[in-house]
Design a protein that fits this description.
With 361 residues, the protein is of the alpha+beta class. The protein contains ten helices and eleven strands. Strands 1-2-9-10-11 form a five-stranded antiparallel β-sheet. Strands 3-6 form a two-stranded parallel ribbon. The longest helix has 67 residues.
Length: 361
């Protein structure tokens, strides 16, 4: 091999090495950019999650501060007012709060191992108000109670509900409390349209939750009394807008409720309150990215406000097992409510659910 050939081979080898080094360096640079980008995204996501946790604590602090100001919860309270977003650097935290006591808790139908007949009657009247079948209440009760028989009518639940089109092949009912109102679509008689009609008036809090008379809608208030209409209950809304009701006894003194019989009052009293034991918060965490696009994460949280040392998940009142217990139930309910109002309130987050998009609120 002559000198020219040797120089050619050497030059070719050098070129191959340069190309190889360039390819490897390019791959390493691309990999490094991806790693940096991934780290940046993870950092941003972690920051948004920290912002959500900060928003939760702000919401808890707000409700806790309001609880020290008065023993009632109404739309005049500070938690009910628009809350301006908190800005920290390039991040912002938005908080929206609503009183879950303003809605009917579908988990009130069955608690402490027994059917709450007063709550069942209220829910049936609510369904009627919304032009829905009242039998949905029975199907929902069977969904929750621990036995395998249809309420009152008897019969095996798996057989009776076997033709339920919105359930899967397994016809056995869960026999447990609902975690979300979206689960109602698994209940016989509830389709998307029925759920949409019910959604503004119901909640699924994991413990017994009385209806707050100071925030409940006229539709829900009308469901408390046989034959009442939402138009008639508008007078209660107008009165509480001027001054919140301080006790359930004040409500029974209203002319619109004067026709309610004493027995029904005693049955309903444990289901009513002038404050709330649960709030729903929507936390929005936003990050203004360098490219101008806003990244957001959302979370819904259930915040409990109960008497200190109260057990979440257990009702503080009797479930009206039979009419013979009505007097004791009413007395116990009033004593329990009075004692709870005197105790300091414990406010804390019970559940949290993260969302990639803004949920309906």
């Amino acid at each position: 091999m002559n000198a020219n050939s040797q120089r050619g081979v050497a030059l070719l080898t050098i070129l191959l090495l340069v190309v190889s080094i360039t390819v490897v360096a390019g791959a390493m640079l691309a990999s490094q950019k991806i790693a940096i980008r991934r780290s940046g995204l993870l950092f941003d996501q972690n920051q948004l999650l920290q912002d959500i946790n900060a928003g939760q604590q702000l919401a808890v602090t707000l409700i806790r501060a309001d609880a020290k100001l008065n023993d009632t919860d109404s739309m005049q309270d500070i938690w009910a007012q628009p809350i301006p977003p908190y800005t920290i650097g390039g991040h912002s935290i938005g908080i929206e709060l609503r009183d879950e006591g303003s809605r009917f808790n579908i988990n009130n139908l069955y608690h402490n191992g027994a059917v709450d007949t007063a709550a069942l009657a209220v829910f049936q009247r609510l369904l009627t108000q919304l032009n829905l079948e009242p039998d949905i209440a029975i199907a929902l009760l069977d969904y929750q109670d621990t036995d395998s028989e249809v309420y009152q009518d008897g019969g095996d639940e798996s057989v009776v509900y076997a033709q339920q089109s919105n359930r899967g092949a397994d016809n056995a009912l869960p026999n447990q409390a609902l975690v979300s109102i979206d689960q109602l679509e698994q209940v016989k008689g509830v389709n998307a349209e029925a759920l949409a009609a019910l959604r503004p008036y119901i909640t699924a809090v994991p413990y017994y939750l009385p209806i707050n008379i100071n925030t409940a809608s006229p539709v829900l208030l009308a469901a408390l009394v046989d034959g009442a209409t939402s138009q008639q209950m508008q007078s209660i809304v107008e009165l509480r807008a001027k001054q919140a009701f301080g006790s359930i006894d004040d409500v029974w003194q209203l002319p619109i409720l004067s026709s309610v019989k004493e027995e029904q009052r005693k049955a309903l009293t444990p289901l009513l309150a002038v404050d709330s034991q649960a709030f729903m918060g929507l936390i929005t965490a936003s990050d203004n990215a360098d490219n101008g696009q806003v990244r957001q994460r959302f979370a819904t949280v259930v915040i409990s406000k109960t008497a200190a040392n109260a057990e979440i998940g257990n009702s503080t009142t009797n479930s009206n097992k039979n009419s013979n217990d009505a007097n004791n139930t009413d007395s116990n309910a009033k004593d329990s409510q009075n004692n709870d109002n005197k105790k300091p309130k414990e406010v804390r987050v019970v559940t949290q659910r993260l969302w990639a998009f803004r949920p309906s609120f």
